[in-house]
Amino acid sequence: MRSPALRRRRCRTSPKPVIPVPKPSAPLRNPEQLTLSSGDAIAYTLPPTALLRPGTAPKQRTRANDIVVATLSEVLEQFQVDAQVTGFSRGPTVTRYEIELGPAVKVERSPR
Q1: From residue 52, how far is each of 46, 49, 55 by CA, in Å?
Q2: Distance between alpha carbon 71 and the CA centroid of its chain, in Å?
Q3: Segment 60-76, tens digit of pLDDT
Q4: Distance of alpha carbon 69 from its chain centroid, rounded?
Q5: Does residue 100 contact residue 83 with C-beta atoms inside 8 Å?
Q6: How far apart are CA 7 and CA 14, in angstroms?
Q7: Radius of gyration of the chain (CA)
């Protein structure tokens, strides 16, 4: 069995090294537009945006949204939280769901 002094020595850790934080650089005063070129110094010009076809309009509601709303409602019911999913807003990446809490329901009770 080791003495408490030996145990204490092993628990000590060396101080963490100090990592210098880089200073933010100043913004460029005259930004330079770079051109794409090959090794032969032939400049490349981007095609006009008129060549692009307009995309389809985003869907306001999908089956996946309905499934998530039903699942959220079921979870709220399982946890006995007086709340309802009242709507959602679709974005290009994230869909936000609106939940309306019942009277006297604290926000801390909402499941995460």
Answers
A1: 12, 6, 9
A2: 22
A3: 888 999 999 999 999 99
A4: 21
A5: yes
A6: 15
A7: 29
